[in-house]
Amino acid sequence: MNAAPANRDSPIHARAAFDVERVRRDFPVLDQQVHGRPLVYLDSAASSQRPRPVLDAMAHYETHDHANVHRGVHLLSQRATEAFEGARERVRRFLNAASTREIVFVRGTTEAINLVAQAWGRPRLAPGDEILITWLEHHANIVPWQLLAGQTGAVVKVAPIDDRGELDLDALERLIGPKTRLIAVAHVSNALGTVLPIGRIAALARAHGVPLLVDGAQGVPHGRIDVRALGIDFYAFSGHKVYGPTGIGVLYGREALLADMPPWQGGGDMIRTVSFAGSTWNELPWKFEAGTPNIVGAIGLGAALDYLERLGVEAVAAHEQQLLALATRAVSAVPGVRLIGTAAHKAAVLSFVMEGTHPHDIGTIVDMEGVAIRTGHHCAMPVMERFGVPATARASFACYNHPHDIERLVAALHKVREVFG
Amino acid sequence: MDLRDLYRDVILDHNRQPRNFGRLDAADAEADGHNPLCGDRLHISMRMDGDRIGDVRFEGQGCAISVASASLMTEAIRGRTRAEFEALFSAVHALLTEHDHVPGRDLGKLAALGGVREYPARVKCASLCWHTAHAALERAGAPVSTE
């Protein structure tokens, strides 16, 4: 250990394996005991932890720079506006969007999808029009379309998945017809870990002239996204799943589409002029940002993306893939365990059930062993139904997880067997 | 906290071998309970004997706490009047939620659920069956007098 700091700065070490010990030190929350044992946090797919640079950026803003944005001529308002709009530019670079006019700050993925449903879909859709989704969607990419269908008479069509949790791409293509108005799919399934072939889905969408929305809540934390290279029309994600704070998220929309959409919510900041005879709208993206935004959230998100880029998006993804491979082997070797979701291409999510033990009991017992996992239906009830289970236990991995965490999980699962044996 | 405070032998036994599991034909009172957090689903059916619960069954799937609690409940409420059921429901609710709970009465085997109060996320698991049975009795309305 004594020699480590010297090694760490050497060029050889820079090319060496991902330094998870060093990463862990950036996350103060990990340094604690729960139920008398060191915390093992395996619930990042629900919400990831925040590294110190994110916490510091937010604290700095709140301590020194806070004022309302886009309003005052005074110095603090200018600083706040610069920081807020700087975060927007940070997000643009991260997604490789053409312009910051295409980056709308929202509360999270859910709000982004609802915005598209109401501002893009509602004025356009007619009875019999179709919205095509998949069987593995999170409720956030199902319910907004059901609401829209109820308002317009449109119909929600669902492309099937197979027993491994992979999307049936041929079936998806067969479901695209003359009435299809939008394809809305997850980038990564939160319940199964399946990574969808977004490039191929985008090519299908383009070939049929149908816009594509991607729910990227679980996609952004695990790999590089290039909305232009992929040809995505709408991309939604949340700050808190990518090492940023809650209450901030992003809707990327291709400018031509956003420009054609009416505002979603009315209020301050989204207008150019207001009179009782009528009002005119602000330019993109502010047309979709009524009211004082979550300024500190956006700043935290910008810092989170900086942090992820510093670690290296690809390096983090490779580290997580190693953990996933290790966990897949180790957890499926525990007697009675059945994995739910065994797609060939998965992100760092491992869903499973144990014979004779309800996932909720698994969750409580492993928590007592200091291991935090998620149990339940993961806001994906149709997925649970598809696999014939009421719920699953789910371990998910992030940049700060160590192979030891998987050993602790497996030991805790043996404890479950002991209690219920 | 010790896991065995939650998963006591009585709980594990009733989870493994639930008592009164199934559905009554021609039930006088029935209701479905659902806990969306964990996906637990319960069906409770009762046959009334005047004001008394003549017979009771439960059916469904859930975690060990939920299944054991329902199983224990069916044993505890058979033969009770509606008023006795409500009093027992209150006593169990207090057992599940109040710290430093001093039982006002001997709850018998139901006392095994006392460990749940240390696990706030699990209180709903243990109380789902009671809420469902309560709803079944409410829905059945006042008993029709045969005199």
CATH-derived architecture of chain B: Alpha-Beta Complex
Strands side by side in the biggest sheet of chain A: 4-10-9-8-7-5-6
CATH class of the largest domain in chain A: Alpha Beta
Name the beta content range of chain B.
15-25%
How many DSSP-defined strands of chain B?
Answer: 3
Q: Class of chain B in CATH?
A: Alpha Beta
Relative helix content of chain A:
40-55%
Determine the number of helices of chain A (DSSP H or I, runs of at least 4 residues): 16
Question: Biggest sheet of chain B, open or closed, and with what strands and sense?
Answer: 3 strands, antiparallel
As a whole number of angstroms, the C-alpha radius of gyration of chain B is 15 Å
Overall SS class of chain B: alpha+beta
Rg calc of chain A? 22 Å
Looking at how many chains there are and whether they match, the oligomeric state comes to heterodimer
What number of domains of chain A? Answer: 2
Shape summary of chain A: globular
Would you mind describing this structure in some detail?
The complex is a heterodimer of chains A (421) and B (147). Chain A has 421 residues and is an alpha/beta fold. Chain A folds into 2 domains: 4-49 and 312-420, Aspartate Aminotransferase, domain 1, CATH 3.90.1150; 54-309, 3-Layer(aba) Sandwich (Aspartate Aminotransferase, domain 2), CATH 3.40.640. Chain A is built from 16 helices and 17 strands. Chain A has helices at 4-8, 11-15, 20-25, 52-65, 75-95, 109-124, 143-152, 169-175, 198-207, 227-230, 255-259, 295-311, 313-332, 359-368, 381-386, 403-420, and strands spanning 33-34, 37-38, 40-41, 103-106, 130-134, 155-159, 180-186, 212-215, 234-238, 249-253, 271-275, 278-281, 337-340, 349-354, 371-372, 374-376, 392-396. Chain A has a 7-stranded mixed beta sheet with strand order 4-10-9-8-7-5-6, with helices on both faces. A 4-stranded antiparallel beta sheet of chain A has the order 13-14-17-16, with helices on one face. Chain A has a two-stranded antiparallel sheet with strand order 1-2. In chain A, helix 10 links the parallel strand 8 (212-215) and strand 9 (234-238). The longest helix of chain A is centred in the first third of the chain and has 21 residues, at 75-95. The radius of gyration of chain A is 22 Å and the shape is globular. By secondary structure, chain B is α+β, with helices and mostly antiparallel strands. Chain B has a single domain, classed as Sufe protein. Chain: A. Chain B is 41% helix and 18% strand. Chain B has 5 helices and 3 strands. In chain B, strands 1-2-3 form a 3-stranded antiparallel beta sheet, with helices on one face. The longest helix of chain B has 18 residues, at 123-140. Chain B is globular. Chain B starts with a helix and ends in a 7-residue tail after the last helix. The A-B interface holds A 35, 357-361, 364-365, 368, 375-377, 381, 384, 390-391, 415, 419-420 and B 1, 3, 6-7, 12, 36-41, 61-66, 119, 121-122, 125.
